[in-house]
Amino acid sequence: MKRTSIGGQGVLEGVMMRSPETTAIAVRRECGEIVTQKQPTQSLSARYKILGIPVIRGVVNFVEMLVSGVKTITDAARMYDPEDEELEPSKAETAIAEKTGKNPMDVAIFFAVVIAVVIAVGVFFILPNLITGWITPYVDSAFGKNLIDGLIRVGMFLIYLFAISNMKDIKRLFGYHGAEHKVINCFEHDMPMDVEHARKNSRLHPRCGTSFLLIVMIISILLFTLLGWSESWAVRIGLRLAMLPVVAGVSYEILKLVAKYDNKLTMALRKPGMALQYLTTREPDDGMLEVALISFLAAEDQLTDEEIDALAERYGHKIDGSPVEKKEGPAAAQEQGTVLGANE
Which UniProt keywords apply (predicted)? Predict the structure, then answer.
């Protein structure tokens, strides 16, 4: 079995795949046309040796994953509907961009990442800690309190995943997530890269972000126990926030370790995260696999842009299987040329 460092995520009617050199997004528009976008991947841990040190690289990767994830979601939405005005930066973001000399979209992405982090930390770290402080006044053991805190955190995480996994729009997103895994598994099992063979593979993968988040939850219980349990909620939360980078870095190293080797121990350690992926992935249809294949091949960067465009045209069809309505004329040709196989 061969390995690849390519990974990705499901997006609005599409898939993003990222290799060490290239990030590619493929999206199927409502008309059935598949559009692609390619950009060079620039990882800080690859450019600066000190940021590639174990544990530190995990923190860097986590931050890059957050920024890349928000940017990918925005790019995919624009590719799906280029005329959607809701995707434009707000007046406040535009004003900040003018004063700082930054791109308005970069400012918008920065605020989106900050908001996402604040909500995640608040819901999955601060709130469980406060609840634990309220319900454990008679628990004397610091370990016991930290264990209860961790179990509440894991429970809230599972409830959140279960709730969103049953939403209609999220089900399609998770279908593309499953397609991403199937295509990567297809490559790693050295099978021909086509829909027929990708379909035969598992929709679960040991390097999935879902597994990473579960590892973060478990590692946080172990590391936070070392901090003891202060009766001051401000001290407790402050210490835990300070430890979050360490938790992310250690969790990243564990994820890479258990995904790298195939033995009884690593396979046993993978099982909880793999099982959780039944909530965050769905069995994809062939149309989703087609999009994921194009994204993977574009990120692998072994085919020319023309070959990727030709494959996108061959796989082009509406969700119900009906053919794409062909546009004609110079305007259509110009539009296609600025999106398909775009390199930025």
Answer: Membrane, Transmembrane, Transmembrane helix
Q: Is 225 exposed, middle or buried (0-12, 13-18, 19+ CB in 10 A)?
A: middle
Name the E strands within the chain: 7-11, 14-18, 22-28, 34-40, 342-343
Amino acid at the residue 146: N
CA-closest candidate to residue 199, choices 275, 299, 290, 271:
290
Q: Which residue has the tokens 């535009």?
A: 94
d(CA 39, CA 25): 9
Sequence ranges of the domains in the chain: 7-343
φ/ψ of residue 310, rounded to 5:
-65, -40
Q: Under a CB-based contact definition with an 8 Å cutoff, are residues 76 and 16 in contact?
A: yes
Tokens of 141: 């053991």
Query: Which tokens is 333 given?
Result: 């040709």
Q: Give the span between the Cα atoms of 242 and 224, in whole angstroms.
A: 11
| 41 in Cβ contact with 219 (< 8 Å) | no
Type of residue at 272:
P
CA distance 216 to 245: 10
- Could you tell me if 211 and 255 are in contact, meaning their C-beta atoms sit under 8 angstroms apart? yes
Tens digit of each residue's pLDDT (9 = 90 or more) over 36-71: 999 998 788 878 888 888 889 989 988 888 888 888
Joined together, the tokens standing for residue 137 give 């006044």
Joined together, the tokens standing for residue 304 give: 């020319």
Compute the radius of gyration of the chain from its Cα atoms: 22
For residue 193 the two structure tokens come to: 């890269």
With a cut of 50, which residues of the chain have pLDDT below it? 329-344
* Region at 13 (left for phi over 0; alpha for psi -120 to 50; beta for the rest): left
E strand or H helix at 231: none
